[in-house]
Design a protein that fits this description.
Keywords: Signal. It comes from Pedobacter heparinus (strain ATCC 13125 / DSM 2366 / CIP 104194 / JCM 7457 / NBRC 12017 / NCIMB 9290 / NRRL B-14731 / HIM 762-3). With about 180 residues, the protein is an alpha+beta fold. The chain has a single domain, classed as FAS1 domain. The chain is about 40% helix and about 25% strand. A hairpin with a 5-residue loop joins strand 5 and strand 6. Helix 3 crosses helix 7. It starts with a helix and ends in a 7-residue tail after the last strand.
């Protein structure tokens, strides 16, 4: 009888654990993000990242971001792109500006899988700030403001991480509220 009761408890515990785990997929742009999918396959489902997805496609970076990685992507929302001066996005999306678009997009990517905790450790080691090298070859600086992770680009602009640690099969995404700009 004890075995039956213990087995029943184990099954119930497993059911609750599975249910809680299923809820741990963060929602980004109204869509669940799955750690079993790659960066592109998750991003295309976010209604808050349609501009970013269009830009990644226009730059020809889809296959790269579907690759093994790992990558850390600081993903600007549509609202972040809307903060840019009027016409900037349309200009960048033109075929003749593919290299400039690629430069901006790869400036939002860091090689490796940097969780918010990893970045925070580097910040503490760097005495309040850390420097990250982007795939584009530029620099980003990161620090904490209270419990918020903040990034500064090479032009002096700042972005705040609004959703951290969106785990992907090939890295991690941190949603940001401003587009970062290289030199």
């Amino acid at each position: 009888m004890k075995r039956i009761i213990l087995s029943a408890i184990a099954i119930v515990a497993l059911a609750f654990t599975t249910q809680v785990y299923a809820q741990k997929n963060p929602m980004v742009g109204g869509a669940a993000m799955y750690a079993t999918k790659d960066i592109v396959d998750n991003a295309v489902n976010s209604k808050d990242h349609t501009t970013l997805v269009a830009a990644v496609k226009a730059a020809g970076l889809v296959e790269t971001l579907k690759g093994a990685g790992p990558f850390t992507v600081f993903a600007p929302t549509n609202a972040a792109f809307n903060k840019l001066p009027a016409g900037t996005v349309a200009t960048l999306l033109k075929p003749e500006n593919k290299s400039a678009l690629t430069k901006v997009l790869t400036y939002h990517v860091v090689a490796g899988k940097w969780t918010a905790a990893d970045i925070d450790k580097a910040i503490k080691k760097g005495k309040g700030k850390t420097e990250l090298t982007t795939v584009e070859g530029g620099k980003l600086w990161a620090w904490m403001e209270g419990k918020k992770l903040v990034l500064k680009d090479e032009k002096g602009g700042t972005a705040t991480v609004t959703i951290a640690n969106v785990m992907q099969k090939n890295g991690v995404i941190h949603v940001i509220d401003t587009v970062l700009m290289p030199k």
